[in-house]
Design a protein that fits this description.
Blueprint (H helix, E strand, L loop, with lengths): L1 H25 L3 E2 L2 E2 L3 H23 L9 H21 L10 H15 L5 H22 L8 H5 L3
Antiparallel strand pairs: 1-2
Helix pairs in contact: 1-2, 3-4, 4-5
Length: 159
Amino acid sequence: MRTADLVTAAVLMLVGGVVLADAVRLGIGWGQEGPRSGFFPFWLATLMILISAVVLVQAARRSATRPFATRDQLRPVAKVLGPLLGFVLVTDPPGPWTGLGLYVAAGLYLGFYMRWVGRHRWLPVAALSVAVPVIAFVVFEEWFLVPMPKGPLEDWLGY
């Protein structure tokens, strides 16, 4: 556990340093219109670096005898990561294959996860697996006008 905490804290400090440097490049002061572009990222990165430094010091002081995770603790993580990887690959697979798009993949993921992990009945699974992607489609594509990855179904429906 100690090694994982040390590595995570160091990586977060590095990311914070990159954000901090870019925020300084953008300007961290106050302009005529208000805060400049780098003002909020600068302070968020500073906070992230400070908190990561605290975690780093705490981890360095701790004993290294406890494992990061046991096999039983990793099983639920795998239950999340496996279907999530499938969701990503179905949405937009690498190579020449055409993905199913975000909305169809989200419906499949939600239905699979609700049934497999949540062990919900088929009616709520089917209802939410259709309703959530349809609502997301209306919100992103129609209201916010933000295009998301689409697949053959959306092409067939004219989007």
